[in-house]
Amino acid sequence: MKIKYEHVLPMEIEKRSFEIISEELVRRGIRLNPELEPVIKRVIHTTADFEYAETLTFSPDAVGHAMQAIRDGACIVTDTRMVMSGINKNTLEKYGSRVYNFISDEDVAESAKKNQTTRSAACMDKAAGLNVPLIFAVGNAPTALIRLYELIQEGRICPKLVIGVPVGFVNVEYAKELILKTDVPYIVACGRKGGSNVAAAICNAILYRMDETRGR
Amino acid sequence: MKIKYEHVLPMEIEKRSFEIISEELVRRGIRLNPELEPVIKRVIHTTADFEYAETLTFSPDAVGHAMQAIRDGACIVTDTRMVMSGINKNTLEKYGSRVYNFISDEDVAESAKKNQTTRSAACMDKAAGLNVPLIFAVGNAPTALIRLYELIQEGRICPKLVIGVPVGFVNVEYAKELILKTDVPYIVACGRKGGSNVAAAICNAILYRMDETRGR
User: Fold this and answer.
1) Contact, B208 vs B37, CB < 8 A?
2) Which residue stretches of chain A have pLDDT < 50?
């Protein structure tokens, strides 16, 4: 056995992980913008992939906008159940917020079939009918991100934040570039990488940041 | 806009993604073992990370063992809800199987507190009480993998397959090396990388392989 066991108490594991990430960022000569640091580090924590320090792209004050939106009653819409499953619901509910995911809804399946699109894209249309401010967390389907872009352009939806981190090989980079062209606040992982775990990590980083700055 | 839109029908996106992955593997000079190919390609599909072509490590006939185990009634135990959420339950149920996850159980929280361990590790103890053959899919917690190793060594559990792909910085590589030392069938992502999405992708790759080879 070459690798030694490091004794860390269960409740200290996350703290120790973030220390290791910070040390390794210094070793790699990467200095993060303090405002973006909690999000970038949590994504690295979730993926063990330091590439995200280079690829995560933020519109000005994206994190601040998102925190204010949740305080003002914004809810989160996800493209997959896995993103929904990864978001810390206890923390979210503390702020009176909740997560919506429509992927299993009968009407979404029907609308996707009718419009020859994916169910994830049809979910965005359904979200346009919600009467609350919305944050979109897209971790899987570029088709959802493209449809979201169209709905923004048509003025049918005005997200408080778009977390655009789908992963894959077909139109993923294209979909992300569309979001970069909009005027809405965004956090986008440029390139092919991303995923449901990345989308959930970004949501949680924003929520934990709200906890940390509460009452300041 | 530098990146062009590729017109692909919704139901063709996955097929096209796998074609791109295959082409890129050839370009990188990587030739996969045909038996392991469906699993490795699905993990790359889920992560857009070609590193997994190098780091995924399989015990002999791990995929075959897993397929036979599910046919013989094996169920899947996961360390997080996110892994559970990512597994294709429709396909799994077709084979009379199901997924167990105990992370939210009251008795698991109590046992974790009592034993100063994580809830994920306590889930493994609870799984030892199940009276069916089991496949373990660990995508998050190295503590779960370490506890699983101990239970294997104590003869209290004999998994049909261990999917050992936790991600992170504290004892993750250590935990994976323990599993490589056992006699049980395993699929392990060596190094720090892995995740709930990777664990779910491996489960789904096995299930889809069962569909493809059905009746042969």
Assistant:
1) no
2) none
